[in-house]
Amino acid sequence: MATPIPRNDVELSAEQVARETGGVVVGDASARARGIWTDSRAVARGSAFVAISGETFDGAAFATAAFDAGATLVVAERSSRAIAEVRRAASASPGRALVEVDGAVVALGALGRAHLSRWRRASGRRVVAITGSSGKTTTKELTRAALGASGAARATVGNLNNLIGLPMTIFTVTDEVRFAVLEMGMSFRGEIAALAGIGEPDVGIVTNIGDAHAENVGGREGVAREKGALFEALGPDAVAIVNVDDPLAVRESSRAKGRRVSFGRAEHADYRLVAREPIAGAASSRVRIARPAGVIDVVLPLPGEVAALDLLSAIAAAEAASGVVLPAGDLEAALAAVELSGRATTLSGVRGELVIDDTYNANPSSMAAALQTLAEVGQGRRLVAVLGEMKELGDISKEAHRELGVRVAEAGVSLLVTCGGLAELTRAEAELRGVETLGASDAASAAELARGACRAGDAVLVKASRSVGAEAVVRCLTGPERSIVLPSHEKGASSGGAGPGGGTGQAGRS
């Protein structure tokens, strides 16, 4: 599901909007608004509506309804078929205005950039931007927590990490906030560069470079180029946080103009993972970190080595942004409050299973990390994986799904349940290596299969790309059986928005 747009109370005038977006005012140039929305159904009296258009709808067609709902300001594209009607509505009453722009999404970004510029006028305020093929959201939440030890931090909520969600997040950055932590996703060429141009970060993290969304940008080299655009966008006084274990990330970091700080397992990393010890019976670990200010030991309330590496980058970014060396005690206290829904979250199943909900998204590197986490958290238990397709991998899709089957077997998984699509290739490869498998046509059918096959004490990983809807499996395993209605399932051969009202369609990006 798309993340709901958070409320904001940004104050602006028609003249100001025209100046910041290069638009032209129609109606009352002195009109003022409080709060910006991209969905006409959410418009409050006295607020502004930015009429975003999609492939199947014209956002300006909902502008008159926004005025009727009490909007005092509308931003719409002059090329819209409905623009004449919007002009009439804007001119019909005093206190109303239309700002005509060339592109509503670009205008929204310009308003976000201007808002951050005003916010930065107070000293000590910093923006941290995070991108990468996997681990962005975990890193974002860990960075927000680490920065919280030095001042109020506001971070991207959910999957609001694209050209609509990022500005809407920025509008929630108020005067009491000292640090803004912005996640930046990518699904097409130039998106990271555009997002970085809006956020103008002081610190930039590229978690890693993999194959997620490779089909949209020309393979892994294209992903590297696009993710590296964040480094290139950093000014000479900004700091690039570089994964020293990722050769492509290291290469792309040469595009940064200012200081570079590294993290990883390598001996020469500025922030180095020295040791990690899983805590028995808990989805957490004790982590020893060597950093420029010395060695520290902290408890990380997340499982797996990848989460520990995410923590390294978060600490590096927090210390670069705040200029403060974080005491281990303060850091550990801040980390204790981190919650990550759908990202290696451990839940109790209705039959006593340990369910690892990692349904937010999937690509080859994140699947490999999730299987490692399953083996670690599920030590001493029967391991079960419920896996769906990894989307948008382009030419490598089939091979990546076959390779995933190999990784399933290597992780010691006893039972694999798949959700159709190319995950059938994963199932076939795992079965060849002795893993018991069940195949379903979709996530709902896979939920029914998993419910029947899982036992008390099992450790169950559930993971797939967002569009697969694998959260249905988690709901089925962790809630009452009557809470989900499932269609008939289909076993394999083996045994064993955008919408009415100008909704934004905030899909997750990688």
Q: What's the structural blueprint in terms of helices and strands?
A:
Elements: E1 11-13, H1 14-21, E2 24-27, E3 32-34, E4 36-37, E5 48-50, H2 63-68, E6 73-77, H3 83-91, E7 97-101, H4 104-119, E8 126-131, H5 136-147, E9 153-155, H6 165-170, E10 179-183, H7 191-199, E11 203-206, H8 214-217, H9 219-233, E12 239-243, H10 247-252, E13 259-264, E14 271-278, E15 285-291, E16 294-300, H11 305-322, H12 328-335, E17 345-348, E18 354-357, H13 364-377, E19 383-387, H14 397-410, E20 415-418, H15 423-432, E21 436-439, H16 443-453, E22 459-463, H17 471-478
Parallel strand pairs: 4-5, 5-6, 6-7, 8-10, 8-11, 9-10, 11-12, 12-13, 13-14, 18-22, 19-20, 19-22, 20-21
Antiparallel strand pairs: 1-3, 2-7, 14-15, 15-16, 17-18
For the record, what is the CATH homologous superfamily label of the largest domain? Mur-like, catalytic domain
Main beta-sheet strand count, sense and barrel state: 9 strands, mixed
Are there runs of 5+ residues with pLDDT below 50, and where?
Answer: 481-510
Helix proportion of residues, in percent? 25-40%
Provide a count of the helices: 17
What characteristic shape results from the CA principal axes? globular
CATH topology of the largest domain: UDP-N-acetylmuramoyl-L-alanine:D-glutamate ligase
Number of domains: 3
Binned strand content: 15-25%
SS content category: alpha/beta
CATH architecture of the largest domain: 3-Layer(aba) Sandwich
